[in-house]
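Researcher: Please translate sequence to structure tokens.
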Amino acid sequence: MMVRFSRVFAAFLRQKDWSSKFTTVKCSSTKAEPRLHRMEYQDAVCTLNTLQTNACALEQVRRERGHPQLQLQAMRGFLERAGLVVEELDHLNIIHVTGTKGVNVRLHRTNTEKLRFSDWILQEQHEFVHDAVQDNWELGNLRLHSPHLVQVRERIRINGKPIGKELFTKYFWQVYGRLYETKDTHGGSMPAYFRFLTILAFHVFLQEKVDLAVIEVGIGGAYDCTNIIRRPWVCGIASLGIDHTSILGDTIEKIAWQKGGIFKPGVPAFTVKQPDGPMMVLKERAKEIGCPLWVCPELEEYPADSGPLRLGLAGHHQRSNASLALQLSHSWLQRRCLPDQSIPSPADESKGVSPAAGFQPSPIMAKGLEDTAWPGRTQTLKHGPVTYFLDGAHTTRSMLACVRWFSEVASQHERTTCGPVVRVLLFNATGERDSAAMLKLLVPCHFDFAVFCPNITEAIASCNADQQNFNVSVENMLTRCLDNQRSWRLLNGQEEKPGAQLLISRDALPLVAAERCSKTLVFPCILSALQWLSQGRDSVLAHPDKRVIPVKPSVTAKAAPLRDATGIHVLVAGSLHLVGGVLKHLDPSFAS
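Model: Translation complete:
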């Protein structure tokens, strides 16, 4: 597949006159071969990528949706082949969480932020727990719901930091080797990408003896590969919305039923406030399973001596995430440090749910909320005259939150800038996302330029295995960019020029150049887009180590407003993969 990638990508570059100094990517095929004698990190990641059968895995989930035990049974089988058993997971002290990328009317975005709040609170509580239980402890975290930004190691963390390359490589080959050695006796089956990462995380946490593991669901809950967990300490459900409808159902009530599948008998669970329909479903699920369910209070209901609680993550939608994180952390700390206390039942047994009480957060908890940081979510980076606003919003509901955040923070920056500011949108979307709907929400931001590119960080001889995606062809990626460009033109009242239709042949990419409109451009990779929109005014991108990608003089001429402006404000949104690729170039620490 990657051979075809190189050939087709080179054809596109030749059409754009970008080929003279642009080396195409050369990587290995997705066909897996055991390389157990090679213990290098990149070998491990390349081998992991051979399991990127996400589309096939999703189709299998759809087929087995009526038989959830088949999926969980398959996961247990893979776990045992890797040398683990479900009973071992009982010793991990797990907090199990789920949510939806889409959000409710309060513009809460994703359970990832809630996880991050929990991480920081629990890390800040280290000394408290140490004093209480006379034991050193470590926090492990598995994050499947959102893609990694730059390196796959970000998905498996210990004490808030991605596991090191050596540790990842060591444990990867241990797990992969056991699965590969037994595949012939199991019909040649190997776990798909997310299943493998889940098994790997369990193995890492058990081997490293973490004292608490925060495990995030991949898709849904009831049928998710993480739901082989039998005895979590506490469960949490963030705000719900419509997403993955082909798997979870086409109504928010059906999705709520799936999310409630992580409830376990006698295990306390917390949820943020939900619309009436899904809240009723969660209540019924909790009552059916025998799980005490609590609804988190508003953040204002937590008494604090030093004034209102301050959050490190921007956006009003983070307030319910913070409340849920407080309740999950508080519940675990109480049960861990005060094990003799029984779990209280909800006040209204008939409804199976009660409002959780707001408690006074300790100074350590408050500091955890304030210090929380999460790259790629409502993040601002200022590089001289160029300011980047990065947000991984990739659904219409999360884009609403992004637009609100960007409008507020960009306006604040512009009020303090003495001179003209040019606004630039850098956008891409993947999968089945409704790009046109997201772009429509961005129109009121009044961008001077809209730039589109695929989630290809750069085209160089040495490929970055961490950011390879074998589930989509380069033709499809660039076609999607051109479709987004057309949507943006139409949304801004600009008619399509004659002859600008997509022209796809067997061995070539779209023949449409990046010159159809003075305010919209398409570039073949993230680096070329960043170099054009920054016009040499970002010292990081202008570093001698960065390969300069030449463009036509006519394309360069269009950038005159960028060269003349006092400031350039760039919103990067639509895809977490895009944001990760941008961060790889803007923040060298991510590359290491």
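Researcher: Any highlights?
Model: The chain has 22 helices and 15 strands.
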